[in-house]
Amino acid sequence: MIESTLVLVKPDGVARGIATSVLSRFERVGLKLSAIKMVHPTAEQAKSHYLQEDIATRHSEAIWLQLIDYLTEAPVLVAAFSGVGAIEIARKIAGPTEPRTAPPGTIRGDYCHQSYAVCNAAGKAVRNVIHASADEADAERELSVWFSRGEILSYRRTDDYEHYLGTDHD
Fold first, then answer.
1. Which residues contact 139 (CB under 8 A, 6 or more apart)?
2. Torsion of CA 6, 147, 48, 126, to 10 degrees
3. I need a surface site. Which of 5, 28, 113, 170 has the fewest CB within 10 A?
4. Pairing of strands 76-84, 2-9
5. Domains of the chain (ranges plus CATH)?
6. Residues designated as active site
7. Is the pTM of this model over 0.90?
8. Dihedral of CA 18/36/146/107: which sign?
9. Helix 19-28 vs helix 86-94: angle between axes, to the nearest 10 degrees?
10. What is d(CA 72, CA 90) in angstroms, rounded to the nearest whole number?
């Protein structure tokens, strides 16, 4: 099933100059880039992205506030990708949220090293370079935070499934 997902290169990824290297991994596996832009998030955008009630069920309000501060400290590169199983594929490419446990070959395993313990002691959010939507509901909600309907484009790539299956009739 073709689905869409949100990928954010967070402020640390943009500041380190690795944003396009990070995004190229999604294209290399065949996901289709449907929208992209650079944004300096407002507090309202960050709060709409990181819903307090979602974070509070797993963490404290202090961690939620750290995430808001982190996301708003500098520009982010926001992208929409689509493809068969795009959400699951993007999550695999990103790797586990805690960089310390992320295996080599994942974005977080290759570009980050921080641990929850170190960040908690410092009172800072984990700098983990990337965000990828967790599931279909999150992807739909998050895409609407960052993009209007007209900004997410549809087009045919030469390696689209329809092309290989012979179902494109253009």
1. 3, 4, 5, 6, 87, 133
2. 40
3. 170
4. antiparallel
5. 2-158 (3.30.70.141)
6. 131
7. no
8. negative
9. 130
10. 23
